[in-house]
Prior knowledge:
The structure is a single chain. With 156 residues, the chain is an alpha+beta fold. It has a single domain, classed as Electron Transport, Fmn-binding Protein, Chain A (Pnp Oxidase, Chain A, Roll), CATH 2.30.110. 21% of the residues lie in helices and 35% in strands. It is built from three helices and ten strands; from the N terminus they run βαββββαββαβββ. It has helices spanning 27-36, 74-81, 109-122; strands at residues 5-7, 40-45, 51-56, 59-61, 64-67, 84-91, 94-105, 133-136, 140-144, 152-155. The longest helix is centred in the C-terminal third of the chain and has 14 residues, at 109-122. It is globular and about 50 Å long.
Amino acid sequence: MAEPVRxxxxxxxxxxxxxxxxxxxxxxxxxxxxxxxxxFWLGTVRPDGRPHATPIWGAWVNDTYYWDGSPxxxxxxxxxxxxxxxxHIEQNGTAVMIEGDASFESIDEETLKALVASxxxxxxxxxxxxxxxxxxxxxxVIAIPGDLxxxxxxxx
Length: 156
């Protein structure tokens, strides 16, 4: 998969001072955080417009976020009405937000093997099914390390 395009998130003029010469967090660092974190937070919108957030297990594989769960869960019902989602993590002082649309899909054997490895490294659960996966292929990922000047936006 091609590397996403990196740029700076919008900050008001003068908010962080002079950013020239300031490095930005690398995609490889963000990817490693997403691959190792245990808890992901899903942000969805209820049909009446109110926000909903919930922690959930999942896996970042091939620059895509996967998770499974009941279609009766509040977040799943929200996604059925509106697929827009933000998935958030915080790891080692860096916040990462994945923005995109969720879909409900079947996966192939190769992806399942990668998910089993990812889940097995972090949880007591190893998935064993090819169907019924929630998937987010990001449109944008924003990473904000402890030093805000190193923040980066990645566009896919």
